[in-house]
């Protein structure tokens, strides 16, 4: 590094700060969230006592594994109004479950085998960018294209039915819901899920959809609580409409 006078150094420091402000905006979002956190955490302590935090230090015992989309408009803890320790959460693009993805698989295995969670909620949402993109993946980065490929395949398999729906909005919403149904089936065939049922431990897998339009969480009624239940109970209804997973 070349020597520069303190004055030159100060000047470049100021221009660096000015540049940072231009790039990230003022005030910096991290400063803001740290400040918000301070207000929140001290507020919780004054309302509920320090036990609000310390009572959870022994470990977690959530009842629910939530699998949802990373979309910033789908804040699950907020719309389910849950508090600390209640929900084990996994979010990715398109609330996906891909059996060769160690990220999602480790979350599911940990939730079932170590946390003994007995309910999984696979939650899609309206206006899902991942689902939209899957219908037309041409220009996407390889990472995204690969990740959402199962949704693209689902669309292609059911293209005739989906394309016959009158609006883009309805086509997307239909694929969002069909994809959640597919994922309930995918989840029901995972090893740790089958193991849990084989051991006689309770496990229910739900398919839900959150609507950005009104904040409602809706049950798609494709719940499975035992092996092969999806194929016996829910698949025939889809086949009857000419649909396939
Ligand atoms: C959220 O849950 C808390 C704790 O159960 C409850 O006191 C509160 O009223 C709920 N909030 C809303 C908006 O329902
Ligand atoms: C796991 O949860 C089930 C109920 O869902 C309960 O019967 C069982 O005892 C729990 N196992 C452990 C090790 O906590
Ligand atoms: C699921 O079942 C509930 C209760 O019967 C019903 O209100 C809801 O409309 C059903 N949802 C769908 C998508 O069929
Ligand atoms: Zn989404």
Automatic annotation (TrEMBL):
Identification of the protein by name: Carbonic anhydrase
Cofactor needs: Zn(2+)
Catalytic activity: hydrogencarbonate + H(+) = CO2 + H2O
Upper taxonomic lineage: Eukaryota, Fungi, Fungi incertae sedis, Zoopagomycota, Kickxellomycotina
Leader peptide range in chain numbering: 1-25
Enzyme Commission number(s) of this protein: 4.2.1.1
Listed GO MF terms: carbonate dehydratase activity; zinc ion binding
Positions that bind Zn(2+): 69, 71, 125, 128
Cofactor binding remark: Binds 1 zinc ion per subunit.
The keyword Metal-binding belongs to this UniProt entry's keyword annotation: yes
Job description of the protein: Reversible hydration of carbon dioxide.
PANTHER family named in the record: CARBONIC ANHYDRASE (PTHR11002:SF76)
One BP annotation, GO: cellular response to carbon dioxide
Sorted UniProt keywords: Lyase, Metal-binding, Signal, Zinc
InterPro entries (UniProt xref): Carbonic_anhydrase, Carbonic_anhydrase_sf
Record-stated family: Belongs to the beta-class carbonic anhydrase family.
Source organism of the structure: Zancudomyces culisetae (Gut fungus)
Top-level division of the source organism's lineage: Eukaryota
Enzyme type, top EC level: lyase
């Amino acid at each position: 590094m070349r020597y520069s006078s303190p004055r030159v150094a100060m000047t470049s420091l100021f221009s660096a700060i000015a540049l940072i402000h231009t790039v990230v905006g003022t005030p910096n979002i991290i400063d803001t969230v740290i400040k918000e956190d301070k207000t929140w955490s001290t507020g919780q302590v004054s309302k509920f006592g320090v036990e609000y935090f310390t009572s959870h230090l022994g470990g977690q015992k959530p009842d629910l594994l939530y699998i949802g989309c990373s979309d910033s408009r789908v804040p699950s803890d907020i719309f389910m109004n849950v508090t600390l320790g209640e929900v084990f959460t996994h979010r990715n693009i398109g609330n996906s479950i891909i059996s060769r993805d160690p990220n999602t698989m480790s979350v599911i295995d940990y939730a079932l085998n170590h946390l003994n969670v007995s309910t999984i909620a696979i939650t899609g949402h309206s206006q899902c960018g991942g689902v939209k993109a899957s219908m037309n993946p041409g220009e996407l980065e390889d990472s995204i294209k690969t990740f959402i490929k199962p949704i693209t395949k689902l669309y292609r398999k059911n293209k005739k039915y989906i394309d016959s729906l009158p609006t883009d909005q309805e086509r997307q919403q239909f694929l969002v819901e069909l994809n959640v149904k597919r994922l309930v089936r995918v989840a029901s065939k995972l090893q740790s899920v089958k193991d849990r049922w084989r051991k006689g431990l309770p496990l229910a897998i739900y398919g839900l959809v959150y609507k950005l339009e009104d904040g409602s969480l809706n049950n798609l009624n494709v719940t499975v609580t035992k092996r092969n239940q999806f194929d016996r109970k829910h698949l025939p209804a889809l086949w009857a409409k000419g649909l396939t997973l």
